[in-house]
Specification:
With 426 residues, this protein is mostly beta strands. The chain has helices spanning 15-28, 105-108; strands at residues 46-51, 54-59, 66-67, 77-83, 89-94, 114-119, 126-129, 139-144, 149-154, 161-166, 173-174, 182-188, 194-201, 204-211, 218-221, 227-233, 240-245, 255-261, 269-270, 277-278, 280-284, 289-293, 297-298, 304-309, 317-319, 331-333, 342-348, 353-356, 364-371, 377-384, 390-395, 402-405, 414-418. It has one domain (15-418): Neuraminidase, CATH 2.120.10.
Length: 426
Amino acid sequence: MNLPIQNPLRRGISRRDFVSVLGAATAATWTGCAAGRGGNGAGGGRLFFTSNGKTCLIHADGSGLRSLEVSAPGQVTWQPCGFLADGRVLLLSMEARRDGPGRPFDEYYHQTPTHVWAHDLDRGTLEELATRERVAPFQTPQLVLSEGRILMQVIPKRPGHIVNMRLDGTDAQEFTGNDEGLPYGLSLSPDGSRVAFHLAGPKGYQIWTSDTRGRNRALVAAHPDYLFFGPTWSPDGRWLTYQACRFREDPGHDWADLCVGRPEGGEHRMLTQEGAMWFGATYGGSARRGGGSNVPVWTRDGRILFPRRIPGSRVPWEYQAQRPDTDHFNREFRPEQARGGVSICRFDPATGRSEDLTLPTEGLWDFRSVESPDGRWIAFCRAETGGSPGLWVQSAKGGEARLLTRGLGETGADHPRWLPGMARQS
């Protein structure tokens, strides 16, 4: 199905959009970095994942589980945001939030100081980056570039914009303007020359590409009835995959459809129909809940992995469109209404053929799939209806999946990413 690019919807930037930047930043800066050590089995690599508010590491054979322990004065929360060329992990920390009672989110959250660090996993060293010529208290890494530069989200005032700067913070150059909307979900082309991103602005959610300075832009996808989200580059750099959500009919963004388009614009195609992809993942029960956007990812051989729902599936966490979204969740737990499930699907855009890598099963929700660097293994999360997810791995050829961990204290595991090949094994 081809969608014309016409008369995009005018809509504001919500609190939900703004908070999404942190999660999208984490996902975006991994792009192009999901490499790992090979080997004769899945034990040849390591994975990052999040559990109980911490970042954890585990070998792909299930051994070596540990949490990432870092600290610095005044820092309350930490999260990984990618890798530098020398193999160190890029970390984002945040001081105590400045919003709260009597301090509205819209006015005070972006006044919370954040800090960016380079961390050596094995030596334990920690170096703060982007300390010179700071543009704003609140800044988050979006995409690591070549030649010691980075795209950084800075928010001197909402909604914020992106600058291209050196890793030390100097020579900051505008990538997007503060009046354009909220750009996030950035992905770097295989040759490092172009950037794809979605822009949440007055004209809706649109997919764009540009050079690394934000110039020479091309509009890839826009339509007043669709929210376009999460572009990533094909291995050969000739295509983008992303998703399209009918947000008017689905205000909770539960479901979307898989799309591809040319980075220079044109040949936009919708590959699935009727909200086949699980977009806004939600899981857990009333005592412990979680979630975050799913995005489609490419395999090394040019196919696409995405979480495909059983037709008619319904999540247990029901979005409450009739009330204001004050917590970036805005849902009620109604497990009695849940039905169906989600499996990991591999789609070939060249032929239109698809295959389920995991078995579609009532009450099982598989998501967050990511291929190992050698293309032999798929790591993913699996949650039962009303339960917290575990981290699983299976052969890319299919077959039986193997549970690695249910997280720290069995509190759940989410957001798996393979470590890069230059990371030394402990």
